Amino acid sequence: MPAEPLWLIELFARRQSPTVGSIDVYESQGGNDLPSTGDFRSDVKDATIEIIQYLYLHDSPFTVNIYPFLSLHGNNHFPIEFAFFDGESTWVKDGDRIYTNVFDANLDTLVSALDKNGFSNMTIIIGEVGWQTDGDKNTNTQNARRFNQGLLEHAMSGNGTPARGGPINVYLFSLIDKNAKDINAGTFERYWGIFKFDRKPKYELDLMGKNGNKGLAAVEGVRYLSKRWCVFNPDATDLEDLPDSISYACAHSDCIVLGYGSSYNHLNPEGNASYAFNMYYQVNNQNDGNCDFSRLAIVTDEDPSDKVCQFPVMIADGSPVMLRRGALGYFA
């Protein structure tokens, strides 16, 4: 292979590299949770420092993803108020530094690790941070708005964290839901979006960080298919295949909202079946052949939604937000 031209090597060296670090590479030391004791884990420290050195020499930031929700999700004893920004309780006292939220505590643990290893002036960017609206007992629109609005206000206030003042550079995760995303890490993984897939906002959010009335704007001109739904057939008598039919429908669509702690967990067995059948029906472009399930399902023009549970209708071809055919997430 011929050697790369010198200009190409220099160009690569000068560009800012958006390498994302994991919060797993740093931790508090000495068996406590004080951010000031933060350092990089001994088993990965050499490799981590080598990467940081490269970024530092080329004037690139250290980018890290921080998920306060995961602290709550992974520990039943974690104080939920510590995950948000509007609490006043002192959860961690580190010398003269007071921590009222886990985001600051986590970020300052990284600040301490960088300081200890000679990178005190390195820019830090939060590559992903956010809160989900479904898939877990602590994920809903109220908590998502509370966290994200608090995050924006905090990041743009200029106060910074107890260990590092100034604005905080954050990328809010994410813009839209991903209804086909892998859920090995958790059923909540599909619902980080601040918009639904038809680009309607899920909740009010002032992106200026002022908690004002400047809400998110929905995309105009979205067109949907006919108002038809696939539901459980109330006249069905042979229910032997019902569990397998529901499993099949969910495996080929998205039924996460029916799970424990999710927003539609209140539905009865017939409601669960109807929701699963309808999701499969909508994913398949309202094809009548996909609403049968051995006569366990029927098509109806009566909306089965209730005040909490919305049975979706698919976005029509040619709509401004239409995705590629066959993808999930077409729903109203």
Structure description:
By secondary structure, this protein is α/β, with parallel strands linked by helices. The protein has 7 helices and 10 strands. The strands form 4 sheets. The chain has a 4-stranded parallel β-sheet with strand order 1-4-7-8. A two-stranded antiparallel sheet has the order 2-3. Strands 5-6 form a two-stranded antiparallel sheet. It is elongated, with a radius of gyration of 24 Å. Residues 1-15 and 323-332 have low confidence and may be disordered.
Strand content: 5-15%
Helix amount, in percent? 25-40%
Q: What is the 3D shape? A: elongated
* Class from secondary-structure proportions: alpha/beta
Mean pLDDT: 89
Report the biggest beta sheet as strand number plus sense, adding barrel if it closes.
4 strands, parallel
Order of helices and strands: HEEEHEHEEHEHEEHHE
- How far apart are the first and last residues' alpha carbons, in Å? 53 Å
- What's the Cα radius of gyration? 24 Å
Q: State the helix count.
A: 7
Low-pLDDT regions: 1-15, 323-332
Number of strands: 10
- The main sheet orders its strands as 1-4-7-8
Keywords: Disulfide bond, Glycosidase, Hydrolase, Signal
Pfam families: Glyco_hydro_17 (PF00332), X8 (PF07983)
Domain X8: 228-311
Organism: Rubroshorea leprosula
